[in-house]
């Protein structure tokens, strides 16, 4: 039997939030709270040879519950970035910036000169004997490549507690060593720091390990422009899944909020998506291998049909066959693709050439309603209607048709119908395939609610039909939008959508009551 955290008496009573700390009575639980509250979370860290450390739910988690709010251990500029202010991490405006009087690093204004985050690297730069000179602001600047690593290394003296926590994180140094990226990092950071800062304070091995920690655990934080990189202590233990169960939001201050869009059962692994859930399997796998050095074997990656959606599939061109063409097995992404219905084999070089062209065309395309429609019509000759390239064009399209309520009121009928059809399709698809992409799902719900409301307005103008059912449907989606976007702050477009959604919800409720 477990024992009370205060007096060691055997007891079965445990803290109902984390299920991990035991108490013989309410008094001892209250007494222990000050110590316990730091660790009172509904998950624990476990270990496996395949995953390393990972997090497991210690109790069932309710929909929309926050499981962790965490401030960063460290915030740094991205490894590849145009010059940013080392005080606030926002981009430097070439016509409006100041130089730090002591070290010369460009800062966005006097207010940032005194910011605590800049102090350690300021002193470190001063020690090199001459000021830094940054004069080119419109391209990625090589000097900034090392600044994330420098910031981490300087924690050893400026904040030893945080440095200790950082060093506990995975660097995958052994796996990284010798790779192309590792060799490039060795030149541009590992050898550069001692030379540029004229220091012997950090040896090459420690520098390379620190680079690994940043690359394996860094999160892109979009609260600055451009986004910066932050490392979080507890959240670093979260494993990846291409169908994760946790959504990631950020507060204005850049704190991480991890929450569950759907219920999670006790003992389930907790996961986030390290990659882009909108990409197809081959792209996600390649990205994960390149950046985080592992092969994903989540249920989405192991299923060639991507949970029955045929997200990577080509259409079968055999006459009268409505089957889809996919790799014959997971090992055959780059070799044998065939039709699941008639068995026809596809030429892999043809598949690759269409995918390459579809990807390039999508990227280069001027994003207008007409171009998106043309793109979809053209590539639907070969790709299924839920292929990831077709879906990416549909995502663009639904956001371009009637971007605000006034525009939506004058959108031609066929475009409004297209918007309604595609948003419904996309919402259904991604609720299945990417259930934690809350910003995208919330935006779809908003688009759908406004398209339904506009359709209702047009129906009411033309007929005597009561639009009550349609208004109820519009209300349902705006409420769903609020659920998905509830943690978004108004630094982001989605935070503004959330505000508008609340106004629209209240108006719709009022209309429905009348
Ligand atoms: C941010 S760390 C996660 C915590 C790490 N497991 C640890 O022990 O510190 C990311 C690394 O964990 C491992 N990892 C995370 N998710 C994984 C998964 N789904 N399959 C295999 N390895 C995974 C990979 O080595 C990856 O580079």
Automatic annotation (TrEMBL):
Domain MYND-type: 4-40
Gene3D superfamilies: 1.10.220.160, 6.10.140.2220, SET domain (2.170.270.10)
Pfam families: SET, zf-MYND
Key words of the record: Metal-binding, Zinc, Zinc-finger
Presence of keyword Nucleus: no
Superkingdom: Eukaryota
PROSITE patterns: SET, ZF_MYND_1, ZF_MYND_2
GO molecular function, one term: N-methyltransferase activity
SUPFAM superfamilies tied to this protein: SET domain
Key word Transmembrane helix present: no
Domain annotation SET: ranges: 41-275
Family matches, as PANTHER family: GH11294P, SET AND MYND DOMAIN CONTAINING, ARTHROPOD-SPECIFIC, MEMBER 4, ISOFORM A
Protein name per Swiss-Prot or TrEMBL: Protein msta, isoform A
Organism: Bactrocera dorsalis (Oriental fruit fly)
Taxonomic lineage from the root: Eukaryota, Metazoa, Ecdysozoa, Arthropoda, Hexapoda
Gene that produces this protein: MSTAA
């Amino acid at each position: 039997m477990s024992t009370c955290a205060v007096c060691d008496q055997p007891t079965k009573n445990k803290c109902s939030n984390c299920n991990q700390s035991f108490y013989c009575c309410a008094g001892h639980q209250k007494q222990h709270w000050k110590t316990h509250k730091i660790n009172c979370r509904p998950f624990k860290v476990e270990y496996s040879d395949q995953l390393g450390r990972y997090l497991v739910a210690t109790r069932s988690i309710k929909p929309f519950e926050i499981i962790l709010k965490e401030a960063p251990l460290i915030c740094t500029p991205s490894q590849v970035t145009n010059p940013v202010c080392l005080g606030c991490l926002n981009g430097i405006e070439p016509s409006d910036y100041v130089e730090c009087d002591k070290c010369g690093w460009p800062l966005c204004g006097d207010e940032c000169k005194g910011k605590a985050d800049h102090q350690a690297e300021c002193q470190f730069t001063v020690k090199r004997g001459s000021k830094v000179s940054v004069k080119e602001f419109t391209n990625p600047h090589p000097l900034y490549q090392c600044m994330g690593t420098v910031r981490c290394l300087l924690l050893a003296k400026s904040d030893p507690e945080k440095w200790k926590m950082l060093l506990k994180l995975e660097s995958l140094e052994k796996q990284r060593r010798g790779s192309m990226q590792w060799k490039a990092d060795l030149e541009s950071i590992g050898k550069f720091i001692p030379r540029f800062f004229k220091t012997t304070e950090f040896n090459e091995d420690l520098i390379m390990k620190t680079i690994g920690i940043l690359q394996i655990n860094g999160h892109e934080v979009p609260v600055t422009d451009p986004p910066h990189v932050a490392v979080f202590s507890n959240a670093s233990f979260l494993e990846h899944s291409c169908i994760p169960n946790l959504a990631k939001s950020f507060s204005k201050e850049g704190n991480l909020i991890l929450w569950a869009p759907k219920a999670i059962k006790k003992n389930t692994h907790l996961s986030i998506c390290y990659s882009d859930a909108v990409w197809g399997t081959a792209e996600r796998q390649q990205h994960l291998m390149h950046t985080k050095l592992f092969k994903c074997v989540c249920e989405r990656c192991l299923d060639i049909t991507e949970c029955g959606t045929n997200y990577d599939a080509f259409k079968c061109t055999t006459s009268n066959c409505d089957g889809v063409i996919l790799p014959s097995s997971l090992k055959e992404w780059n070799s044998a693709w065939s039709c699941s219905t008639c068995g026809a084999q596809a030429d892999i070089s043809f598949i690759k050439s269409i995918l390459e062209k579809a990807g390039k065309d999508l990227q280069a395309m001027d994003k207008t309603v007409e171009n998106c429609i043309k793109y979809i019509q053209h590539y639907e000759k070969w790709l299924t209607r839920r292929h990831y390239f077709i879906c990416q064009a549909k995502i663009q399209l639904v956001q371009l048709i009637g971007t605000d309520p006034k525009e939506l009121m004058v959108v031609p009928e066929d475009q409004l119908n297209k918007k309604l059809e595609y948003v419904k399709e996309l919402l259904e698809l991604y609720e299945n395939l990417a259930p934690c992409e809350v910003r995208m799902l919330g935006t779809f719900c908003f688009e759908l609610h406004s398209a339904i409301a506009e359709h209702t307005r047009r129906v009411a103008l033309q007929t005597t039909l009561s639009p009550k059912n349609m208004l109820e449907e519009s209300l349902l989606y705006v409420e769903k939008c609020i659920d998905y976007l509830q943690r978004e702050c108004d630094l982001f477009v989605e935070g503004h959508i959330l505000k508008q959604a609340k106004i629209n919800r209240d108006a719709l409720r009022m209309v429905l009551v009348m």
